[in-house]
Every structure is written in structure tokens, then in C-alpha cells.
Design goal:
Layout: H1 3-26, H2 33-49, H3 53-69, H4 72-82, H5 87-93, H6 101-123
Helix pairs in contact: 1-2, 1-3, 2-3, 4-6
Length: 124
Amino acid sequence: MTEDEAAVVKDLPESLEIIEVGAIAFCRRDVTVSKSEKIFEYVLKNLSEETGAISQELLTALTGRIESRKNKGICGLMRYLQAPNSFDQVVESSLLSYPKKRELAKVARNVFHDFFNGLCESEC
């Protein structure tokens, strides 16, 4: 067995263990959008700390998949509403992208409008 093959054999279980922990966390009944964002962050952070080729390929594939499927506006708004004072730190340290605060204000306005559109027209 060559050194490259040995590195792959060592890297594969480590990488899959990180994915397994994330998958088990997603299967719990109490998972919300907010918790799922934190699970994604955990998995991506741990994969980025691994040095193997498989870990880096999984990191790239998983990041691309998450970014293409998540609603960045809603997820960003939820993260902001949870901790408005630390939102900038979350954005800077995150491996995922989040909208700027100005864009979050537009998202919040749209969500408010969608929720209360009929109510405000008749009672406001």
C-alpha cells in the first residue's frame, strides 16, 4: 500500500464520521432552521480542519450544495434575530454566505408584508 492509499484509508473514516455526526443531529425531532444552520457550520468547520483530499472534496461539494439550496435571506434573518450584536462576527467566521444587514431589512419587510398583508388592509 502506498502512502497516498494509506492517507485515503485514514482520511475516509475521519471525514465520514464528521458527516455522520451532522446527519444524526439533523434527524432529531427538534431541529429548526436555526439549528440546522449551526449543524451545517459545525460539519463544514470540522471538514475544513481536516487535511485529507477526501475531506476537502466533501467540504467543497457540501458547501456548494448547501449554498445552492438554502434561502440565504431567511436563514440570514433568523441568525440576525437570534443575536443582532454578534451577526457581523457570525458572517465573518462562517464558511457559508449571508446577506448584508441592508438586504436583511428588505427580507424582513417582505416577510412582514407577506404575513400581514390581508390583515393590514382591513384593520390598518
